[in-house]
Amino acid sequence: MGKAAQPPTVLLIEPRADDLERTRMLLGEAGFRVVPVTRFDAAVPLFEVIRPDAVLLAVQAPDYGAVQVARRLRQISRGTVPLLYMVDPHDVGAYQHCLEKGQCVDVVPRSGSGSELAVKLHAQLRLKAAVLRAASGEEEDTALALHDPVTGLYNKPFLLSLLGLEVRRCERYGGSFSVISAEVGGWSAMRKEYGRGMAERLLVYSAVVLGQTVREADAVARVGESQFALMLPGTPAEAVPVMLSRVAARFESARFQVDGRVVRTTLELGAVSFPDTVGTPQQLLSAAQQDMRRTREFRRMAGSMTRLSV
Length: 310
What we know:
Blueprint: E1 9-13, H1 17-29, E2 33-37, H2 43-50, E3 54-58, H3 65-77, E4 83-87, H4 92-101, E5 106-109, H5 115-136, E6 154-155, H6 156-173, E7 177-184, H7 187-194, H8 196-213, E8 219-222, E9 227-233, H9 240-253, E10 256-258, E11 261-263, E12 267-274, H10 281-309
Parallel strand pairs: 1-2, 1-3, 3-4, 4-5, 6-8
Antiparallel strand pairs: 7-9, 7-12, 8-9, 10-11
């Protein structure tokens, strides 16, 4: 539910009248209160008046006006209101534009049954509500420190609390989510060579890169000395490879400098998805870490075989 136990309000910005009406009806049937508008120049004034719980923006060439509007809405809301882009499933250009210029706003199909759209909206709103409740002390055992003191990301106890909430909601209402484990390669060697202070700078740098790569609804936490974990609400197993590729590519293109020279690091990745994998929050996190270790070992074996064949 949205403000004051009312249905959550969604601001829907869709220039195509037929699609506007179809999406409005689908969201209405899913329990949302929808405020529709066809013009992007009306989105900001309307947003400031109604203060919606979430915003949907249709993206299309050639101007991609939705992306500019989304940036302005994020500034106004300071990132507290979930935003989602709607893209035609076969519009590769628009999808790529959202990935590159969309500032990590999530992407959903512009057509279809609407079930994925409703699930992602509910997932984003639930996560936002969980974080707000935890910060105010309403959730048991999460009123203490929520953040890792080095990176500023969520800490492991709070991530496990969020995973527990998401497991219970998916068991009750259906849906899926995924957990990604990530470890910075070469961190121990850097700490040994340059000292802990420089190694922690690498962790902060890695945290920034991860934060710039994931979507607004995703939660990123530091769960070990050089390990991170990501919770992806509303993300089934078949969508994980795209997210893994996106994170790996973003990290590969990043540059960390030490004493004026670029230091190249790697990011080991692994993932599991609920309900394909079930268990306690700690078991889900451990399963993702185990998948990460298997992937790393497989890559090492493949590299050894390549060297032997040469």
